[in-house]
Amino acid sequence: MVRFFVVCFLFVLTFKVSGQEVPLTPGLVIDTVHCKSDIKQSYALYLPKSYTINSTWPVIFFYDPAARGSVPLKLYSSLAEKYQCILVGSNNSRNGPLNAAQVSEQAILKDVRTRISIAPNKLFISGFLF
Predict the structure, then answer these.
(1) What whole-number distance in Å separates Cα of residue 33 and Cα of residue 68?
(2) pLDDT value of residue 92
(3) Which of 14, 43, 68, 108 is the most buried (most CB within 10 A)?
């Protein structure tokens, strides 16, 4: 009986934690940010240490063939600091059907626009292979 309650407690705790929004902390690579409009879609995010919502920021979106969103962000975070730009890496877009990549791209762009102060005329896309 005790095991049953322990399992129930852990299940509720896991559900509660997974529903919480991840804090967007400047200067850290955040491995997973779930899109609000489609929680199946997620991305990694890097905000420069000097990021504030009081100004708009250029964004580089990375698309890796194996959907490793945080890999390019970890490698290029020093460049993001130097050139003062935001880095976003898709955790869903991968080699395969074009439709799946488009769905991921649209969900991520919509989410980034609602959460982060971006410069709409300074959005860049990069592939990544490591």
Answers:
(1) 13
(2) 93
(3) 43
- Band of pLDDT at residue 130, cut at 50, 70 and 90: low
- Our CA angle for 24, 25, 30, nearest 5°, is 70
Dihedral Cα 95, 38, 19, 24, nearest 10 deg: 70
Name the residue among 46, 98, 47, 42 with its Cα closest to residue 68.
42
Backbone angles phi, psi at 124, to 5 degrees: -125, 150
SS3 content of the chain, % helix, strand, coil (to 5): 40, 25, 35
Measured between alpha carbons, how far is 9 from 31 in angstroms, rounded to an integer?
A: 26
Strands (E), 35-85: 42-46, 57-63
